[in-house]
Design a protein that fits this description.
5 helices; five-stranded antiparallel sheet; elongated; alpha+beta
């Protein structure tokens, strides 16, 4: 009989615990808010896209010509360690007419990136002797972005705390605690300052360095979360 009573007591406790465990947690005095800090940052990085392209009847011969131009460019660029070079998008595609292959088009792209913009402009003029220019854009370097983001995080969190304190005071609470917080950063889109069509480049009798303005980009940090008034 004692064993039965003990067992019944344990079962009663478990049932009571399970009943309370499924009760929704009551939350009071929780408020969601956010704060943002932004800054205009001057672009310090130039990104250039160039390509070599050949079209004709013999794909192998075209590939050799494209490879020669790209290798010439890579050899020239090897002299400038400040420029980051990346080869991209090598393609050999057929050219059709009335569903028949009439030619082949071979193309490869080079991507250049550097914070030394005067050097990039100089190099760009040289490379256009054999390569075509497809676009120039400007961005913020990783180092500068990280430095500015650290500053913006401090500013955004300060603004968040100030707003949280203001809300607590207005609602006649002495203090608050942070329940959760999320910190996110964002950057305005990359600015493409210069583009030139293939036709325009074919008509040009001489290579002229394009006029460029790096411009600015907006970096932002947003802090959002929930506080609980005490």
């Amino acid at each position: 009989m004692k064993i039965f009573n003990s067992y019944l007591f344990v079962v009663t406790l478990l049932l009571s615990y399970n009943a309370h465990a499924h009760e929704p947690v009551k939350i009071y005095n929780q408020i969601s808010l956010d704060a943002t800090a932004s800054v205009e940052v001057e672009n310090d990085t130039m990104v250039v896209s160039l390509y070599a392209q050949e079209e004709g009847s013999k794909a192998k011969a075209l590939s050799n010509k494209v490879n020669e131009k790209i290798n010439w460019a890579l050899k020239y660029l090897a002299q400038h360690k400040e420029i980051k070079v990346e080869t991209e998008n090598y393609s050999t595609v057929p050219v059709y007419n009335n569903k028949q292959i009439i030619a082949w088009r071979v193309k490869q792209t080079l991507k250049l990136e550097s914070t030394n913009m005067p050097l990039m402009s100089e190099v760009l003029g040289e490379l256009q002797e054999q390569l075509n220019l497809s676009g120039i854009s400007f961005d913020v370097s990783r180092e500068k972005r990280e430095q500015e983001t650290q500053y913006l995080i401090d500013q955004a969190i300060t603004a968040y705390n100030k707003r949280a304190t203001q809300i607590a005071n207005k609602l006649q609470h002495d203090n608050y605690k942070i329940v959760n917080m999320h910190v996110t950063s964002s950057t305005s889109p990359i600015q493409h300052r210069y583009r030139k069509s293939t036709a325009m480049m074919a008509e040009a009798s001489s290579v002229v360095q394009p006029a460029m303005a790096a411009g600015d980009r907006t970096l932002s940090v947003r802090v959002n979360g929930t506080i609980e008034l005490e």
